[in-house]
Specification:
By secondary structure, the protein is of the alpha/beta class. It has a domain of 107 residues: P-loop containing nucleotide triphosphate hydrolases (Rossmann fold). The strands form two sheets. It has a five-stranded parallel β-sheet with strand order 6-7-8-3-9, sandwiched between helices. Helix 3 packs parallel to helix 6. The longest helix has 16 residues. The protein starts with a strand and ends with a strand.
Length: 213
């Protein structure tokens, strides 16, 4: 699904990733664990093309996307569910979800977007009940559902999740990870950055430990 070779990236003169190589096969849940500052989020942001790598290679489904723009990454079937959810708090649940389907805008694809929205509501029934509620008034767990649902709106093959358990109660974390397992059962591939090693290793097929880039 995705293969990374000798990837280097950072911020201005600060090099964070120092030759990272890894791969994720189709249908796997793979986790990256490590301490704060190890470069885990930087890696996901680089794959998502939010950071331009200085060297190395990113292959997505066999295609070189190392220097591709972010919209091409999404159209190629890869989405990022970012750390901290990053919702628009003054927009409704439904509006936040629909933003995830921007690659499906247009007459020919609007039916796909509507169908995907219905699938999200089936996966998270509470979001159907609260689709007109402002996202900023939701609980942390509900906001995480919206963030994941927004990512799924483009019907990706590879879902990258950055610290999905952050700030959530253990029971909510368990529910979120059950959804991740369901996604794998549906044929999706998941790459998770997570500090809660015990919880994520309970669902992951494989894991990488990241240490200072």
């Amino acid at each position: 699904m995705i293969r990374i070779r000798n990837l280097e990236a950072g911020y201005d003169k600060l090099k964070v990733l120092k030759g990272i190589s890894l791969h994720v096969n189709s249908g796997e849940i793979v986790t990256i664990i490590g301490a704060n500052g190890a470069g885990k989020s930087t890696l996901l942001n680089t794959i998502a093309s939010l950071i331009t790598p200085s060297s190395g290679e990113i292959l997505l489904q066999g295609k070189d996307v190392t220097l591709a723009p972010p919209d091409r990454i999404v159209k190629g079937g890869c989405v990022l569910v970012p750390e901290g959810r990053q919702l628009f708090p003054t927009m409704t649940v439904k509006e936040n979800l629909i933003l995830g389907a921007y690659t499906l805008f247009g007459r020919k694809k609007s039916n796909d977007a509507n169908r995907n929205l219905e699938q999200i509501y089936k996966m998270f029934p509470i979001l159907n009940d609260r689709q007109s509620q402002l996202a900023g008034t939701l609980s942390g767990g509900e906001q995480q559902m919206v963030a994941l649902g927004r990512g799924l709106m483009s019907n990706p093959n590879l879902i990258m999740m950055d610290e999905p358990s952050m700030g959530l109660a253990p029971l909510i974390v368990k529910d979120i990870f059950k959804v991740v397992e369901t996604l794998r059962d549906q044929g999706k591939t998941v790459l998770i950055v997570e500090q809660n090693a015990k919880a994520v290793l309970g669902i992951a097929d494989r894991g990488y430990v990241m240490e200072t880039g």
